[in-house]
Amino acid sequence: MAMDYGRAEARRSPRVPAVLRAPLEGRTWREFLYLLLSLPIAVLTFSFAVTMTTAGIGMLITFVGVPVLAAGLVGVRALGAVERARARALLRVEISEPEPVRARNGKRGLMPWVGALLKSSVSWRHMLYALLHLPWAIAAFTVSLTTWSVGWLLFLYPAYSWMYPEWWGQPGMQIGDSEHGAGLYVDNPFEIGVTCAAGLLLVLAAPWLIRGLAHVDRLLVSGLLGPSRLAERVWELEEDRGVVVDTAAADLRRIERDLHDGAQARLVALAMDLGLAKEKLEEDPEAAARMVDEAHGEVKLALQELRDLARGIHPAILTDRGLGPALSALAARCTVPVQAEVDLPARPAPAIEGIAYFTVSELLQNISKHSGARSARVDVWRSADRLLLQVWDDGRGGASTAGGSGLAGLAERLGSVDGLLVVRSPEGGPTTVTAELPWRG
After folding, report:
1. pLDDT band at 10 (very low <50, low <70, confident <90, very high)
2. CA triplet 388, 391, 395: central angle to 5 degrees?
3. Which residues have a Cβ under 8 Å from the Cβ of 336 and sit 6 or more positions away?
């Protein structure tokens, strides 16, 4: 199987080596254009930042300095938005928008907003970018333009060498000092060949140099113009909280629907049947006995439905005996033969234990309904401070977390507790789903 995968990779890989493709690839030209545009943009940004900062600080002794400084910060934030858009278009780097300016305690008005702007670390990181980017842009512009243009000029020299004696009255390209006659003219086949070879080396090396310079720009943009790690974490927690709330609401609606359509409806019918049996008790004791017998059967079905519903909320075996016995019982109820192995030194936190149980439950349901598998396996173990679950089956494969599938919802629920879901399911199978949860014991 590994050999087949290797042959597939070889078929997909291009035949031309990367070092030969790089000079003509779109990525090289995009990043080269980015470096060329960086210089004029950096000059504009630097000039604006220095002017507004020095003017604002110089006038801080008066009230005018505060709005001038605030205007400078607003300006560099706007220029930062342009830089993020340029990085997305030319460097293909996705940078989230930084957190907006918000006054503390929900205060409204111009002065609270200006105060929040001046205290915002995002604003000052934009200002720092405006000051630092100019010297780097000058160096990157000079190095990239010189290397790229000289490389192509030397490499293509045989194509235009005839123009020197024809139009400019000299035997060839001059290298060296022309004032004292010490220059060298490239005018014979050997010298032309050496020049072309040197140009080819520069052309082949320049894309990697350009990519290295552009990578530094990526670090500058993502480090200074993106959101802070703390803000990203806050946003993640807010999204996770929304997922948890939505999931809890959906579970409550499911429980209400199951009670209304299942046990509740059955108990209502049972009450009606018992009422009719009571009326017939004196007139037709035998009919009343049959109705009571039927009601007894309905009671058993209602109790079974309630037990199933309670198991769906939180199984008693999980609370009493832990994840190992609970997953073994879950595997026994699956329509596909399942081998379950749980190797845990202790029990994790109850919430994590419950999420692990319902994750395996949903995955086994997917196997029963959609996989066409003949066998499956569940493995659970602890690695450092993480709880890992792996569910494998030999079905038809093709499972994915894309397209709003059940696996996508499961991945969101795991993400709400800093978990992770990885699906490997090629067409034809087998399917391996690995879930990772924090231990929190």
Report:
1. very low
2. 160
3. 364, 367, 368, 371, 373, 374, 375, 376, 393
Q: Assess whether pLDDT exceeds 70 at residue 206.
A: yes
- Residues with Cβ within 8 Å of 407's Cβ and at least 6 positions away in sequence, in order, are 366, 399, 400, 401, 421, 423, 433
Q: Is the full-model pTM beyond 0.85?
A: no
pLDDT greater than 60 at residue 180: no
The answer to whether the beta carbons of residues 82 and 209 sit under 8 Å apart is no
What's the rounded Cα separation, in Å, for the pair 296 and 290? 10
- Number of residues that this document lists for the chain: 441
CA–CA distance, 364 with 371 (Å, rounded to integer): 10
Give the architecture-level CATH label for domain 316-438.
2-Layer Sandwich (3.30)
Helix axes of 285-313 and 229-258: crossing angle, nearest 10 degrees: 170
Q: Write the DSSP string, 275-293.
A: HHHHHHHHH-HHHHHHHHH
Query: How far is 293 from 122, CA to CA, in rounded Å?
Result: 74
- Specify the CATH class of 252-313 in words: mainly alpha
- Compute the distance between CA of residue 192 and CA of residue 161 in angstroms, rounded to an integer: 9
Residue that is written with structure tokens 């049996």 in the block: 277
pLDDT confidence bin for 441, thresholds 50/70/90: low
Residue type at 17? P
Number of Cβ within 10 Å of residue 34's Cβ equals 22
pLDDT at 106 over 50: yes
323 vs 129 pLDDT, higher one: 129
The candidate with the shortest Cα–Cα distance to 68, out of 24, 102, 118, is: 118
Residue for token digits 């093709």? Answer: 398
Max mean pLDDT among 212-221, 242-251, 348-357 falls in 212-221
Exposed (0-12), middle (13-18) or buried (19+): which is 283, by Cβ within 10 Å? exposed
The angle subtended at Cα 133 by Cα 132 and Cα 139, nearest 5°, is 110
* pLDDT of 328 strictly over 90: no
Residue identified by tokens 């936190």 is 349
Using the structure block, give the residue that is written with the tokens 């310079």.
213
Over 70: is that where the pLDDT of 237 sits? Answer: no
Distance CA 328, CA 364 (A): 12
Q: Where are the domains of the chain?
A: 24-224, 252-313, 316-438
Please report, as a single letter, which amino acid is at residue 361.
Answer: S
Pairing of strands 386-393, 338-343: unpaired
Amino acid of residue 439:
W
- Residue 280 CA to residue 297 CA, distance in Å, equals 19
